[in-house]
Amino acid sequence: MDTAPPAGAGAGAGAPLPLSGELPELAGVHWRRRVDEEGLRRADRLWTLSAVAHEVPFLLTAVLLPALNLIMIPVSVAALAFAWVIPELYAARGAGVLRPPRRAVSGGAAAEHRALGLLADLVGHDARDLLTRTGLALEAGRLGVWVVGPAGALLVRPGGRRVQCYCVRATGDDLPVADRVAHLLLALRADEPGFATVANLTFSGAGWRIRRRLAPPARLALSAAVGVAAAGTARRTRAPAAV
Amino acid sequence: MSRLIRLDQTGHTVLAEWTGEDPVAAETARAALRAELERGYLAVASEPGGEATAVRELPLDAELVILRRPIAGG
Questions:
Q1: Does A106 touch chain B (CB under 8 A)?
Q2: Are A145 and A228 in contact (CB under 8 A)?
Q3: Do B52 and A123 make contact, defined as CB atoms within 8 angstroms?
Q4: How far apart are alpha carbons A2 and A240 in whole angstroms?
Q5: pLDDT tens for residues A77-127?
């Protein structure tokens, strides 16, 4: 079966491949600063500050209003609810990157099986069992340990406590789920900082906030990634190869 | 035997196979790679150790070259 040219291939398609080995898709997000360790730490700090800025006013309201007048207790309860709900909404948005796509592919189960076979060949021996159980690929990189899904990836930062969620996908809607994972895995392996630059950061925060929002297979994959990150066994230290 | 494959809606499609001793097969693989790059696909040489390198020419010594679609932030 032939395939149509990649739909929405504007982000880098046809562009000359950078000599540094960077992802060609970076041309589509040229205004973004290329991600590095310091950039990730900065993003983590901004997300923490943002969370504090969201929560402190509500918490102060919840504490101060009843002190002024007990009749304000219902307002205080509502403020507490907001203080709880807002971070939960952000976490839910982050966890959504590992949600499987709803759309069925045209090739059906046979295509999915074939795609899964190739993906199993691509992942390392250790990650193969997890892939079979969860459909997600575990990849240890320089920036942390990645859990790669069909529509995004989680990055468990070194130490295993903090998680970043990235929304990113292969262009076109007709690919099998495992093929989508393979697309992201190959891009990640070719240029990890470039991958994190192209992807949209949707959440950064404590792993426990994400965990309870994940489906059981994704939770299992996150636990495995946290284990690897906590053990400090991130694998590769390779910069993108020159082409 | 090295392979050039394309990730597509069938799971994947083997476009060409070649060996270092078969210049005709290698040229066929080169032509197939060029054609897919012009269609907007991106090529990655996948190495057995789990590393990958973006390529625009066929690396004859690579075991597996995979054509993928561009990715974009969602």
A1: yes
A2: yes
A3: no
A4: 31
A5: 999 999 999 999 999 999 999 987 776 666 688 999 999 999 999 997 778
**Nearest one of A230, A181, A212, A9 to B70, comparing CA atoms:** A9
Return the SS3 of A239: coil
Asked if B53 and A241 come within 8 Å (Cβ–Cβ), the reply is yes
- Extract the runs of DSSP E, i.e. beta strands, from A130-238: 137-140, 145-148, 152-156, 162-170, 200-206
CB-CB contact of A183 with A229 (8 Å):
no
Helices A73-95 & A37-68 angle (0-180, nearest 10) = 160
How far is Cα A183 from Cα A169, in angstroms, rounded to an integer? Answer: 8
CA distance A91 to A214: 10
Does B36 reach chain A within 8 Å, measured CB to CB? Answer: no
Assigned token pair, A166: 């990235």
d(CA B66, CA A204): 32
Put simply, whether A240 touches B (Cβ < 8 Å) is: yes
pLDDT tens-digit map of B2-60: 999 999 999 999 999 999 889 999 999 999 999 999 999 999 999 888 889 999 999 99
Q: Where are the alpha helices (DSSP H) in A171-237?
A: 177-190, 192-198, 207-211, 216-231
Q: Is B72 on the interface with A (CB under 8 A)?
A: yes
Which ipTM did the prediction report?
0.95
In chain B, the residue whose alpha carbon lies closest to the alpha carbon of A105 is B9
Q: Is A101 on the interface with B (CB under 8 A)?
A: no
Identify which of B12, B13, B74 has the shortest CB distance to residue A151. Answer: B74
